[in-house]
Amino acid sequence: MKKVDVVLGLQWGDEGKGKVVDVLTPGYNVIARFQGGPNAGHSLKFDGEGFVLHTVPSGIFRESSVNVIGNGVVIDPVILMEEIEAIEAKGIDVSSRLKIAKRAHLILPTHRMLDAASESAKGKSKIGSTLKGIGPTYMDKTGRNGLRVGDILSPEFDARYNALKNKHFALLSQYKDFTFDISEYEQRWLGSIEKLRRFEFIESEIEVNRLIDADVPILAEGAQGSMLDIDFGTYPFVTSSNTMTAGVCTGLGVAPGRVGKVMGIFKAYCTRVGSGPFPTELFDEDGEKLRAIGREFGATTGRPRRCGWLDLVALKYAVMMNGVNELIMMKADVMNDFDTIKVAVAYRIGDREVDYFPFESNEDIVPVYREFKGWKSDVCGIRDYDSLPVELKDYIAFIEKETGCPIKIVSLGPDRSEIIVR
Predict the structure, then answer these.
(1) Going by DSSP bridges, is the β-strand pair 306-308/49-53 parallel, antiparallel, or unpaired?
(2) Alpha carbon of 352 to those of 356, 366, 368: distances in Å?
């Protein structure tokens, strides 16, 4: 029996999931997003062009693929339709390749206002929200107030929308210094709702399980990263969904026994956008060098990413929590010019040293590093593993040994062709 394979990020997001899914798609008929929202920015590059996807699954450019936005995703109709129209401008027939879960929740214009008001009120303790309304939408979902894609088909949709909007207005009135006007965005939102009607809304849990029964290869595409998981990430500096493999079960309606291979993506170093703990963050020339060479700026926000050495403690934690079978290493080429490369193998917290990811993931953590000799050569054009410099192969072998997982793909550039498959 076929199972749903999973590909997801093992760090704080921005690992390169879009490219990997695009590379893997020829082996799968169905690509399904299972959580997150338009805070995702999955970058793809091929044929000399670059694309950033926020809600649409990354298989959309492959002619033979079916792309499912699952029930665990939260959708802003304005952003989704802008994305769809940009893809259609490239000659892609999106309506024949995209299906949307009826149970997926809708992000309202007032959700965006609640997000901005809440973040503004936090002051210095703000979490670094993308202000897309995602957190408030998930709050309405768990609070049983939410509006869902399937509600668009109801004759009571307008009444339900207005009821929830008015509830949000009452909440917003508590933020005395926060002013807002949703009128322009609301018009675009309502117009986008009408445009969405031409797409197929499905009971995604029924559809996905039927496809599994029919032995159709399915790939579940994660968003954000494991260390941003609402339960197991660096709380409260996390996203509002379960970003780990367990999220596939609730975000697509798949039983645990139907989850197959789990492929975990990580950068050869670490990055993070926004606030929150980052034990290996660099504030020196090496950090600036990683940011400049790696072009580390958010695909969705444009914000400069914080950069640091690979955190093996966090990586091993993510491998364990996700049940990872195979690793995919991204951006090894960014470190072509470093004399010395460091890896955090443990944390020092006060007078104790730990080799696991602790509850108290705060600024008091001091990383314990192991140093490696840099490869000091351009690996971008290499397409077979044996031709890689020995220093890079040693680096890869060390990570494999420590995590207990083989690194099956090594990415050496942004284009879909710049990879080594082992």
Answers:
(1) unpaired
(2) 12, 11, 12
Residue 389, amino acid: P
Write out pLDDT tens, residues 221-249.
999 999 999 999 999 999 999 999 999 99
Q: Is the peptide bond before 236 cis (omega within 30 degrees of 0)?
A: yes
- Catalytic residue numbers? 14, 42
What does the pLDDT read at residue 126?
60
Distance CA 319, CA 309 (A): 18
In this prediction the pTM is 0.91
Closest by Cα among 177, 237, 409, 225 to 322: 225
- CA 201, CA 88: separation in Å to the nearest integer? 19
- What are φ and ψ of residue 97, in 5° steps? -115, -5
Q: How far apart are alpha carbons 169 and 297 in whole angstroms?
A: 34
d(CA 370, CA 398): 11
Token pair belonging to 195: 């445009």
> What is the bridge-based pairing of β-strands 310-311 and 98-101?
unpaired
Residue type, 117: A
Give the start-end residues of each E strand in 153-258.
200-202, 218-221
3-state secondary structure at position 370 = strand
